[in-house]
Amino acid sequence: VAPPDNPATPEKVELGRQLFFDPVLSANDAMSCATCHHPDLGFSNGAPTSAPRPGAPGRNVPTLWNVAYLRHLLWDGRLETLEAQAVDPLTLPHEMAATPQGIEDKLKAIPAYVELFDAAFGGGEGAVTFDNVTRALAAFQRTLLSRDSRFDRYVAGDASALTVQEQRGLALFFSPLTHCAECHQPPTFAHGTFRVIGVPSDDPGRAGVSATGVHGAFRVPTLRNVARSAPYMHNGSLATLEDVVHFYAQGAGGADGVTTVDPLLKGFDLSGQELSDLAAFLWALTDESALPVVPEQALSGLPTTPRIVVPAR
User: Fold this and answer.
1) What does the pLDDT look like over 286-309, one tens digit per residue?
2) In the chain, which ranges are E strands?
3) What is the pTM of this model?
């Protein structure tokens, strides 16, 4: 939900789209938001982890699909608005390394951006501010909605939307045997809580930002478009959906002696076919119908992130 001080408008969303794909926001004109949140890779980047923040471990780049529905952002939930979230990647030295003043100066020198800022916020050149950059980026990201997958069509009455294998996987996903749906709840297939699953890691997770957080607990991510955002887990340590299913079947980190693993994760005994069925169902949560159009060239004149051909299942 958009905050009262940043209601969505078509003009604001269009400005945010142009900014998202434009490397001009980075200090060296070489990195855009889409560099790490690539639309063809589930709005992740295909790498196990990103460059670490100073004094913090590197983490897997979280998807932006359905980020509009999140109360807590990032793996440890340290931020609660998309407007606030935009600040760090734009300004941290190991990411885009820009300064608010530097961004404003560069954008004010591009007439097309002055026009878009004026259309979105009013005030002519005076609308080109760092705060409005973050507002526009947030407005754009709130349009990245995935909610018309083959699963959705199946539950709406289209019995042919899922294959027989995917239907078997659906039954397993919602079975009390696996407990998958207790943490990954429809319709978002996420949950606003932080859980310990026990992936080997020294990362404190939620405990690093909250006095009441549990060490090693991370936000439950959405499974919408999960087939596009490999590798998986906060540290990118599992390469495929089949690896993820196997990890949970073994009891998650409990199998490696992690004593704080969430009590729901007791493992489950499935045949090889059933494990494949469960992984197949996760592909049925794919819906990229709201993929934005990537500008062929940024308004700055710089090249945008090239498209990647990702094979469909």
Assistant:
1) 999 999 999 999 999 999 988 887
2) 191-196, 217-220
3) 0.95
